[in-house]
Design brief:
The protein is α/β, with parallel strands linked by helices. The protein has helices at 2-8, 20-31, 43-56, 73-80, 106-134, 155-175, 193-198, 210-220, 231-243, 246-266, and strands spanning 11-15, 35-40, 61-65, 86-91, 137-144, 180-187, 226-227. It has one domain: NAD(P)-binding Rossmann-like Domain (Rossmann fold, 3-Layer(aba) Sandwich).
Amino acid sequence: MAEFAKRYGPWALVAGASEGIGAAFARDLARRGLDLVLVARRPEPLAQLQREIVDTFAVRVRCIALDLARDGAVAALDEQTADLDVGLVVYNAARAPRGEFLDSPLAEQLAVIDVNARGPLEMAHRFGRRLAARGAGGVVLLSSLTAFQGSPFVATYGATKAFLLALGEGLWFELAPRGVDVLVVCAGATRTPNYLRQRSSQGAPGELEPEPVAEEALAHLGAGPLLIPGRFNRFASQLMRRLLPRRTAIRLMGAQTRRLTARDAGEGGTT
């Protein structure tokens, strides 16, 4: 832990930290002795998480309530943390509306791109320069298993996660000589509060709690560009990518998301 804190501390920034995987990253990083900048749109969950972490771990926590979909959000975040020696950036923020592409407002699809693609790109650029200047640090980008094939009914979300995967793998190669480790985490079904609100009653195979996802990611940081947390998810991903025809993989994904979309519509709309 001392070596981790030396390389990636003293401050870590977690975007999308209010609950789920982001909150799990925050707790694990605090356990490792890093001070935290917690970023999310809603201030109340951030304040609650801040109290929990401060009461449990001997670290400092700064909360920044910020909507990463708005213009200038990442620039503002860069300015508000200019006085901190940030050594690790975790980008977990995401928008994931479900439904027919043509039935969803264009503004909503563009907001997905703002949060899921433009946000992490700008974050990696602005904070990547800071990390490269200090000669050490890390960037963790949260992608998804939807990155590996087209994902009907979450098409824009899946496309942004594919972009994030390609971006992170490219940066892994570029930034390594400058002392910066980059990792893309392609998470599968994870029991976050939002996922539990949306999933079917029987759930999905290979579901993980947020904590093992964060722990496995931080343990893998510096060991390669890509991590798929969970043995079942790694097996399923290999099956979908290597053995099934691409059209079959897309149809399987579409069948799953169609059921979830139909369930949302039956309950009065998407979440």
